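Task: sequence design from structure.
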């Protein structure tokens, strides 16, 4: 049975197949290294680690990569979780290289899977069982991701509003979006299906895929590196799969915001399109961006008298077109 054939099946039929994996012994289950990236976010990281303490999947290890925190995150985490390995980076290496530090550990230990997990998430106890069960069904599956909910979207503890139920990518407009974002979950996205990429907030990847296509590209620093990684995997013949029975909750934007967001989102979008789009796709993207998106974006910033964001956007466009990194 393959994921391709499952694509149009009802969720119940898929889950019927997955029961086969639950009878396997622990030694038969693939090994998973869970990498949690921390940057000045010890409270979120503790809550994330506490949720991982309750997962049902038995064959895993957790490591924390600290990305040059300037608070007392490292000391607090080591004291509270002496059994967890904490890798200390001397500076903030960004999302991609921060996780790469942990991924290299997985490659050295011959772990079969790596799970990238944002520190501002909490997980369902069975999320890893569901992810690995589906990933093991088909050797072509390279990347797998869960259904992601907002942690507390309305401030009243609501946990059924969707952050992402899979993803889509347009190579003509350079747009990416989360399927079902802000919708209340009523079972409308409960089928396992192929997606264009897996959201980096929770991304399961086979280490043999990493060995073949390489690590996350550290030049992106933050944003678009997950899209680029999955796209490279697709070009190598691997698929990305959305698995709704695996569930996590995400404090969306807890560790980001402001002008750096604007810069990296714009610059890295240009980088990705320049690297991966066909010439006619890239030309169409440029036309739409400059004749439509950029005009309206700058207009909105002008109305808010947010001149710093206009300056940042212009620099991001220039650096994106020139393929420049920050000096």
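Answer:
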């Amino acid at each position: 049975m393959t994921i391709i054939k499952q694509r149009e099946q009802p969720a119940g039929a898929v889950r019927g197949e997955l029961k086969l994996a639950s009878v396997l012994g622990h030694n038969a289950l693939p090994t998973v290294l869970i990498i949690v990236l921390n940057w000045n976010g010890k409270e979120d990281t503790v809550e994330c680690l506490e949720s991982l303490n309750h997962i049902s999947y038995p064959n895993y290890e957790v490591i924390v990569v600290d990305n040059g925190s300037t608070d007392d995150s490292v000391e607090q985490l080591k004291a509270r979780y002496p059994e967890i390995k904490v890798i200390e980076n001397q500076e903030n290496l960004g999302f991609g290289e921060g996780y790469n530090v942990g991924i290299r550990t997985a490659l050295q230990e011959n772990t079969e899977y790596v799970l990238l997990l944002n520190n501002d998430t909490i997980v369902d106890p069975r999320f890893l069982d569901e992810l690995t069960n589906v990933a093991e069904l088909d050797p072509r599956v390279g990347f797998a991701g869960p259904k992601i909910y907002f942690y507390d979207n309305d401030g009243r503890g609501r946990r059924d509003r969707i952050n992402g139920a899979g993803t889509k990518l347009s190579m003509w407009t350079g747009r990416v979006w989360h399927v079902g974002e802000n919708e209340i979950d009523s079972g409308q996205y409960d089928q396992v299906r192929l997606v264009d990429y897996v959201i980096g907030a929770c991304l399961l990847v086979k280490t043999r895929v990493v060995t073949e296509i390489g690590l996350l590209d550290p030049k992106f620093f933050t944003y678009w590196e997950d899209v680029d990684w999955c796209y490279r995997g697709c070009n190598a013949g691997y698929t990305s799969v959305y698995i709704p029975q695996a569930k996590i909750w995400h404090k969306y934007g807890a560790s980001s915001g402001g002008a750096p967001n604007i810069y990296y989102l714009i610059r890295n979008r240009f980088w990705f399109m320049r690297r991966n789009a066909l010439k006619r796709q890239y030309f169409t993207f440029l036309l739409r961006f400059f004749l439509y998106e950029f005009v309206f974006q700058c207009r909105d910033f002008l109305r808010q008298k947010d001149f710093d964001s206009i300056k940042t956007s212009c620099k991001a466009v220039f650096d994106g077109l020139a393929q420049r990194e920050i000096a």
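Confidence is low (pLDDT under 50) at residues 1-25.
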